[in-house]
Every structure is written in C-alpha cells, then in structure tokens.
Amino acid sequence: MATLTHATSLGDSHARLDALAELSQRLLERCHASGASQAEVSCSEESGLNVNVRMGEVETVESTRDRGIAVTVYFGQRKGSASTADLREDSLDATVAQACAIARYTEHDSAAGLADAELMASDLREFDSWHPWAIEADHAIDLATACEAAGREFDRRVENSDGASVGSGESIGVYANSHGFVGRERSTQHSLGCALIAGSGDAMQRDGWYSIGLSADDLQSAATIGRKAAERAVSRLDPRQIPTGDYPVLYAAESARSLIGHLIGAVSGGALYRRASFLLDSAGTQLFPEWFAIDELPFMARGFRSSAFDAEGVATHESPLVKDGVLQRYVLGSYSARKLGLRTTGNAGGVHNLQVQANSGDFEAMVRGMGRGLLVTELMGQGVNTITGDYSRGAAGFWVENGQIQYPVDGITIAGNLKQMFAAIEAVGSDVDPRSHVRTGSILVGKMTVAGE
C-alpha cells in the first residue's frame, strides 16, 4: 500500500487563518458595496483521515479536505444568506449577489441583525486546542488492527467484530462581521474506537468503547480500548428480564449526559420562542435538588467547546446554568434573545463546556448507594416529548441488588417526566466521562417506571 500521511493536513495554520481573515474582509467590503447595512462572513477549512478495519482486514481508508464560505447580509432587518466552496472571484461575487437578492425579497424581521457591537469579544485567546497528529494511514491501520485484536483475544466468547476505527481531523475557521470583529479559531480532534460482538446465534451481544481527544496524547491505548470493548460485550451475555415496576435508575456517565442534553434543548432559545419546551418561563425556578449545580466553562484548557466568542462574535463568560438547584438563565443567541425580549447569553452555536457538580463518590460508590435498582448503560430510541417533558426510552444495562451488579438486562423501557426526573435526582458521581463537552458523572434518579416482564 502506498504510504498516505495526513496529507490532508492544513499545514501552517496561522498562514491559513491569515488568508481566511483577508478573504472575509474582502467579502464584507463587497457586501457593503452592494448596499447591505450589516454583514457577516464565516470561512472554514477542514481536513481528516479516517480508517476502518474489521476482522483484521482494512475496510476503508478515507482522506478528506473541505472548505466552506457562508455570507449573510442584512438590509435593515431583512436577511439573506448564501454559501460556496469556490474561491474564484466570479463565484465569490455571485455568492454575495445571491445573498443580497434573497435579503431584498425576504420579510422584515424585527429580531434580525448582528449581535450588538458592544458585546463583541476582545480577549481572543486560545485554549490548547491545536494538536495536529502527523499520522500515516499505515500507522492508523496498525492501531485499529491492534485495538480489534486486543479485544478479540481478550475473551474466547468474543466471536465477531463490528470493527475498529481511527480518526484524525483538523479545522480552522474565521468569523468576521461589519462591526469590525474578526475571530479566529483552530482545533484538532482524534479518536480510536472498537465495537465487538460476543456470543453466537440468537445470544449475540454487541458493545464497544472509544477514546477521543484534542491531542493524540490524550487517547487511551489501542489495547486498553480493545479490552474494554470486549469486557463490555461479554458482560451483556445472557441478559434477563425484570418485573415491571418503579425503581431507582442509575445512569452510567456515558448515558447520563443525555439527561443534561434534554435540559439544554428545553432551555435553548429556539425551543422557547417557539413555545415548544416543557421549561417555558422556568428561569429562576427550582428544577433540581438544592445541592445540584451546572457551570458553563468556555475557557477550559483542551475543552471540546472552549472558545472566547460564540458564533456571532459575542464574548463568552464563565457562568452558572444551574445553581442551588435553580435554573439561572436560558441558552440564547442574539436572535432568540430578541424574540424573547432578553439579552444574548453568548450561546449562539451552543454551550461551551458544561460541568455537572458531583455530590457523591466514584462509580462503585454510586452502585452501592443505590442498593437495589437498574443501572442503565445504553439508551435506544428518541422517545422524548420536548413540549410536555414526557420521557420513554428503550434501555439496556444491569440489575443491582444489595449494592452489587447481579446480571445484565435488556428489552426494557424506562419512563417518566423530565421535570419530575430532574427533581428526583439523588446523586451525581465523581466518575466523569471526559469524552464530551458535557462533563458529568453517573446520575441516580430516585424513581422511574421500568417496563420489563
């Protein structure tokens, strides 16, 4: 096989960012010359290498390189947007012209426009997010193969595989607007994962494990990931059913962050101004126990969503989302804030690293503390009604008695109402899963309906 380095690498990232910044200024000038009262431009470049192997054989080797340019103009409070990946001058001219044409024919929207100029970020720092990995495809294949082999050799009951993969990517971007703001960002992300199948016939069970980080140095070893995937697959063999009833439910950390995701969805501006949220008018109200807290930490070193500014150039700030169990604020960009008669929270584009406060010990301590109930390690389906908060999802995991895991269970459904579930949280563990911008340990909900036998 011919050696393929990370030839997709963006090379000198600072030089590329300079070029994108210069391009964004030229585009803003064209927007102004076309009569736009305000304009904003986003320019990005991404590159990546991904390999997949299965049963020791290479399935795919993919090298990617993409770029995108998005132009948004405002004629008063009429908005138009257009995008391109073509850097030829005639294509750039056409993109600006198309955005302007759209704006001239759209309806006036009183909430439209750039975020207020005084909110633009001025302290434009980096947060240790740039760690290119000069990995060759041959080396990536070797890592994926070693990861899968470690899992397959770990236990003879691992009889099949869904494969192992290695991914490495780089991205740079510039956001600029007619307030004079120019923000530059660059980041890398690398991953190694494996999914294995234990058992045979109708008794097969699948599970896996993965590691992800902004630096390759943050990844777990291939052998560790393979063995962990095998352990998880084997532990699910011979599942049982449990009687239908109301039980404590302990969400393992990798599943627990979905609960925080439902909270974020419900307090985000788009859901609120459309009145499609079960948490309308909830800012300042008690949603969780008094000890519960969530903080947004946009300046975290090597955080997955660290940034000095949001997608509109607004300065980000460290701030509580939940304090003493009380929802402190919503998650808003400038458009949704105006629709609600509020002020942007610097969250255009989403939240920037959430940390859920722990009040308990590690995973083993959480299991012991639950005593008897259901440990959930996997969730299936999308059974969440964002308007009412009603929650019903397929689940798999383990039954716990006397503070000890007894046997695997699957084919069950857990149900409740998110507002009641939030209030019924009894503990958050210190076993934080670091593989996400939502950093939480396992979460114990005191009672939920479990549909089993």
TrEMBL record:
Domain named Metalloprotease TldD/E N-terminal: residues: 39-103
Residue ranges of every copy of the Metalloprotease TldD/E central domain listed in the record: 131-237
UniProt cross-references to Pfam families, sorted A to Z: PmbA_TldD_1st, PmbA_TldD_2nd, PmbA_TldD_3rd
Keywords: Hydrolase, Metalloprotease, Protease
Enzyme Commission no: 3.4.24.-
Cited InterPro entries: Metalloprtase-TldD/E_C, Metalloprtase-TldD/E_cen_dom, Metalloprtase-TldD/E_N, PmbA, TldD/PmbA_N, TldD/PmbA_sf
Residue span, Metalloprotease TldD/E C-terminal domain: 244-452
Enzyme class: hydrolase
Molecular function per GO: metallopeptidase activity
Family matches, as PANTHER family: METALLOPROTEASE PMBA (PTHR43421:SF1)
Family indicated by similarity: Belongs to the peptidase U62 family.
Protein name as annotated: Metalloprotease PmbA
Naturally occurring in which organism (per UniProt): Lysobacter koreensis
Lineage: Bacteria, Pseudomonadati, Pseudomonadota, Gammaproteobacteria, Lysobacterales
Record gene name: pmbA
